Amino acid sequence: AQTVTQSQPEMSVQEAETVTLSCTYDTSENNYYLFWYKQPPSRQMILVIRQEAYKQQNATENRFSVNFQKAAKSFSLKISDSQLGDTAMYFCAKSHSGGGADGLTFGKGTHLIIQP
Amino acid sequence: DTGVSQNPRHKITKRGQNVTFRCDPISEHNRLYWYRQTLGQGPEFLTYFQNEAQLEKSRLLSDRFSAERPKGSFSTLEIQRTEQGDSAMYLCASSLVGGPWDNQPQHFGDGTRLSIL
After folding, report:
1. Ramachandran sector of residue B98 (left: φ over 0; alpha: ψ -120 to 50; beta: rest)
2. Which residues of A43-65 are buried (b: 16+ CB within 10 A; e: fewer)?
3. What would the pLDDT profile of A33-86 be if each residue is shown by its tens digit?
4. Alpha-carbon dihedral sign for residues B93, B65, B58, A108
5. For A65, A94, A113, B68, which has the most beta carbons within 10 A of its beta carbon?
6. CA nearest B89: which of B19, B35, B31?
7. Portion of chain B with pLDDT greater than 70, in percent
């Protein structure tokens, strides 16, 4: 069975600081997709960023960027200039196959709190 | 784009009863996914459909669970003879795959929260 591990149950930083959330995963596949999803309190899951494993360049979306280390099976999320609205649960997920369009395996999540 | 719609938002039922949830995906999306999320955990994959075909089922989907997508549009998830352990948030997601575009990521609904008394 595939596993996705998020080792930080909770993190707290001051507004405007940079924060990095960790994620490691287990796979024997060469191609797959990795995702970070955000789940604000009592609200729906929103895609933050995704990365295709065969692409060496790290994905970026505005203040969000990833550090993808394929050999180490590591996929961390960096949030720059953090904002109060970034407070949420963050889930790392991996696709079940290379197309990235079938089921996802999620980690247990990291609760990120941005302090004013 | 009206988003993924799930009904009901909350369902409270007694142990042993059957329950059915509905998911309406984003209109042009051909894939539809079901996940279960318990408190403090990440979502766990249950099953997904491409159009009306059920392509993947998790071992979590016991014989008490059945999902359908008869016309390739909305989907239903039924749980028979509910147990205490079925209490969870049931999430539906949809995506658009195939064709000349990249496979799109999954868009999630608000979920149906099931409480078993």
Report:
1. left
2. ebbebbbbbbbeeeeebeeeebb
3. 999 999 998 788 999 999 999 888 999 999 999 999 999 999 999 999 999 999
4. positive
5. A94
6. B35
7. 96
Tell me which chain A residues have a C-beta less than 8 angstroms from the C-beta of B40.
108-109
Q: What mean pLDDT do residues A76-98 have?
A: 94
**Of chain A residues 28-87, which have a CB less than 8 A from chain B?**
35, 37, 43-47, 50
pLDDT per residue as tens digits for the range B46-74: 999 999 999 989 988 889 999 999 988 99
| End-to-end Cα distance, chain B | 36
Question: Which tokens go with B108?
Answer: 């999630």
pLDDT at A47: 95
Q: What is the SS3 assignment for A27?
A: coil
Nearest to B109 among A44, A96, A103 (CB): A44
**Do residues A67 and A74 make contact, with C-beta atoms less than 8 angstroms apart?**
yes
